[in-house]
Structure formats: structure tokens, C-alpha cells
């Protein structure tokens, strides 16, 4: 495994690149990059070191930025990132993911685009937009954004996506057709007799655990697990202090280990419960949870962590990282047992990605 | 030829692009197309679906607010100016 540990941090005012060694104790910080554009999501190819940053400028529109030198120089493109002159205007790019030479981008209003040339040009994945439920998708408070893109690790025809206030979909034919994957997921903001619709759930973050069929999601109304690729979900919220939160990450090698950061409630401020920062980990796929707060602020920590602002690295032990909307970045090099502040005073953090490169 | 004056935040996205350019074109649409031919990607930064000039950009031709269809006299000066915003 490479010697350089890298963190990519997307913020409201540009991207940042942090570097450390295998110990991950001290980090250098470079930024703001991408000309200070709002950056919602970032990804890196560990083999090539190519970085992609997804976002959009209020003045200049949506784009995916690309750097082949760990953020020293950048290009950007939105060629083809459009619903056409008669379609709705794309506000920004919310999600970015790589899979077998293809790059996927999720946008607002919700839709999926793909690039087969590393982000230089984009093509609309029309099958999702043509889904029969599309006319009834309704934006929530966070807009109608496609944020989570989860390619299957070995079957390039399979991809899951998650859309706020709409739910999860899966394609098994490379994007031609899509099926809803929301059975068993509660929509607690709907009347009691209609809280399990086919779609309309507000998924906040969707992740795949190693293997290909085990999915987890932090939802507006709880945390859920699926062991069959999203065909059926089980509520695993019991044991957490709140059903509400945004981020969720899975261990890269142990599919029973996941982390989330509960916030106090959708209508209660959306900050760490009781102003005490904590990360919650499960080692049994969500059957039970343990709170970890060593090294995190335990007084007046009214912090918020958003959906893409948490990440894990592939080292052993795994490094876990999260950033707050107050611009603090925390890291753990012991799988979330203890934490230290890596950076502070950054702009509002929207995205964190971790990797190891040569 | 008309002269286009571009904002610093725009040319920063295309390293090496000067802020002052002489362009051809008899409308704003043709001027932006000319810019895009010389600086690929410029159209997407200035225009959104419709097509239309992006909501939070203002284009002025000889001091008057313009749309894509606004005529451009040969001696005109065209200003591209980001709208004011907070934060």
C-alpha cells in the first residue's frame, strides 16, 4: 500500500487537499482550490491519482473539475451535462463516482450522467429520468438532488442511486431501466397509514458494504440495512440516540462494521445531541451500536455533519474522517475509537474523501 | 470589431485567456459562440438551458443590458459582469 495518505475536502468555498503519511498524525493543507467554487463531492482514483471534484457556481453553473496532479492544476467540464435546451436548468453536481472506467455524476434537479472519457464529456442516463415515477418526484428541503451513486464492485451493469425525498433505485442493465429499492424504508414525515410508499423516502446517504449485496442507508427517518441489494430493508435505528443524521460509511473489508453520526432531529436544529460530538459505530451490521467520543468536543459542540462529509481510508487499522459545517475536520486512525482535530477554520465542509496513493 | 471585457473570475477558469478580447458576431449569441470556438467550454459557463445567458450573469452591449438575441454593432463594447451576491 502507498505511503501517502490523502484527504479530499469539498467545501462551500473551494476544495482542499490534505496529505499525511501512513501514521496519519499530521496533515498538510492545500487550498482553496477549484477557484473557490462550491464543491459537493470528490473522488480519487488511487492508481492514477486523478481527482474529480463535483459542484457548481452560482454564476457559472455546474461542472466536474479534474486534476491529474493531486490538485495542483485543474481543468473543468460540463460538456453534455445538460437536459437540453428545452429541459430544466441543472443547478449543480451533487455526487460523483467511478466504476470500471466510467464516471457517474448525480445532479440537481435529480438525474444521472455518465462520462466514458474521464469527465471530459458527459451523457445523460435517460433511463432513470424516464422512470414512470419521475413526474411525481417532489423536492424536499434540500432540493431534488441525486447525491449517492453506488456502482456494484464487479458487475458494471449494476448501479444504485439515491435521491433526496425520492429514494433508492437500482439498474441491472447499465442504466437502461431502473427499479425502486425502498421496501421497508420508513417515510416518517408522511401520514401514519402511508409511511411505506414505493418511493418518496428521504434517503440521506447510501453506501455499499464489501460484497455487493449489503447496503446501508442513513435516512431522514432512521438507519436501514439491506442484505439483498435493496430489495428489502430492515430498520437498524435501535440503539442510536436519534433517527436523524446525514452521513454513513462502511468498513472497506468488514461488511458488519459501519459508522454514522446521529444529529438531534430534523426539526430540532440538526446538530450533535446535547452539544456533545460523537461518532457511532456498529460491528454487527447495525444490530447494536457503540458511542465513540474520545478526543471530540463534549461541550457546546453544536456541529452538523452533512451527507458526504464522512469517509474511510483503506489502511489497517482503517482511518475514519468527518468534517463539519463549521469547518472543523476530525480524523481517527484507530477505526473510530479515538479522534483528533486535523484542521479547523475551513469553509463549511460538504464532502470528505480518503485514499492512499503512491 | 466588437470588444468583450470578461470578469476575472471567468478567465481564471481558462488559464491564459485575456480579459479583453476582440470578437466577431452580429448578436450576443454569435459573440459567445465565437468565444467558445476560441476558448472551448466558454459557452457552458456563460449560458444555461433555453438557451439563455446564465441567471446570475449580466451582459451589457454599449451599456445596455442584453440577451442572446441583442444585436452587436461592430464598434460595441460588451461587458460580462457577475451579478452581485452575498456571502
In round numbers, the mean pLDDT of chain A is 96
Inertia-based shape of chain B? globular
- According to DSSP, the number of beta strands of chain A is 28
What oligomerization state is this entry in?
heterodimer
Query: Low-confidence segments of chain B, ≥5 residues, pLDDT <50?
Result: none
How are strands sequenced across the largest beta sheet of chain B? 2-1-7-5-6
Query: What about the largest sheet of chain A?
Result: 4 strands, antiparallel
Total helices of chain A: the number is 1
Alpha-beta content class of chain B: alpha+beta
Helical residues, percent of chain B: 10-25%
Give the averaged pLDDT of chain B, no decimals: 95
Strand order of the largest sheet of chain A: 3-2-1-28
Number of helices of chain B: 3
Largest interface: chains, residues each: A-B, 20 and 19 residues
Rg of chain A over CA atoms, rounded to whole Å, is 19 Å
